[in-house]
Design a protein that fits this description.
By secondary structure, this protein is α/β, with parallel strands linked by helices. It contains six helices and seven strands. The model has no long low-confidence stretch (mean pLDDT 95). The chain binds NADP nicotinamide-adenine-dinucleotide phosphate. NADP nicotinamide-adenine-dinucleotide phosphate binds next to α1 and α4.
Length: 239
């Protein structure tokens, strides 16, 4: 039976990535769900078992260039094309209390390695498959913390700097890949209850990821280069 599409999602063992895996599977998509330690990913393996044949788990550490390339080759052996890549894996390292003058460099480099370089590594590894996809889309999960016009500076420096860079990568990649018909957007998912956001987050995971999956499914070339919210509307955040 023809599926609505094939998607690769990173960081799927918990949080938003796990919710998206479930909702894309429920929508009938073929889902490649990547995570660092598949053998320990109990919740993800339960989702895969509930949607047998539709959800396949892949090993992926986005910091590891060779490992990302191995994952790309593995994907190539399993599918002829990819319609959607969701760059979801992300970290929030460092300390909220830091301010200019006492910033540590290590968490900033960590955040760039995962939230920016990780996205670039994965995107480049699967681009040949996306080029063969139908209505190919790349979704980078960003945050209002990356807005240059942010008025609240609650979030860590490392996180904000890396998400601002991810937003710029989105704009540049959207421009470069437009002639190939590949749509590239960044999405603020909303304040969703996960390990990263904590219990004070306003949106339940299942509800929010159901909305996000529908939005990603509907994305099209007219949106390329945009920063959108979880409903697919232009984001309230300014670049
Ligand atoms: N929750 C929110 O309110 C919110 C708001 C704005 C943006 N976001 C963004 O949404 C994305 C997902 O966030 P979340 O809230 O679901 O966070 P989360 O619960 O902390 O989950 C993060 C996911 O990323 C994975 N990951 C981290 N480092 C990785 C690496 N080096 N290689 C591969 N995978 C890695 C984690 O895997 P492990 O379990 O192996 O660490 C986990 O699966 C992030 O990009 C985040 O910045 C979230």
């Amino acid at each position: 039976m023809k599926t609505p599409g094939t998607v690769l999602i990173t960081g799927t063992n918990r949080g938003i990535g796990l919710g998206l895996t479930r909702h894309f599977a429920l929508r009938g998509w073929r889902v490649f769900a990547a995570c660092r330690r598949p053998s320990e990913a109990t919740a993800l393996r339960a989702v895969a078992a509930a949607h047998a044949g539709r959800v396949e788990v892949l090993k992926l550490e986005v910091r590891d260039q060779a490992g990302v390339e191995t994952m790309g080759r593995e994907l190539l052996s399993r599918t002829a094309s990819l319609d959607l890549l969701v760059n979801n894996a992300g970290i929030l390292p460092g300390d909220d209390s830091e301010a200019a003058g006492n910033l540590s460099i290590a968490p900033i480099l960590d955040a760039f390695d995962v939230n920016v370089a990780g996205v670039i590594r994965v995107t480049q590894a699967v681009l040949p498959l996306l080029r063969k996809g139908s209505n190919p889309r790349i979704v980078n999960i960003t945050s209002g913390g990356g807005s240059l016009k942010a008025t609240s500076f609650r979030r860590h420096y490392s996180y904000s700097l890396s998400k601002a860079a991810l937003n710029m990568f989105t704009r540049r990649a959207a421009h470069d890949l437009k002639p190939s018909g590949i749509t590239v957007v960044c999405v603020s998912p909303g304040f969703i209850r996960t390990d990263m956001a904590g219990p004070e987050a306003t949106l339940p995971l299942d509800e929010a990821t159901e909305v996000l999956a529908g939005t990603f499914e509907r994305l099209g070339p007219e949106q390329t280069g945009q920063w959108i919210d979880r409903f697919g509307q232009p984001s309230e955040f300014a670049w």
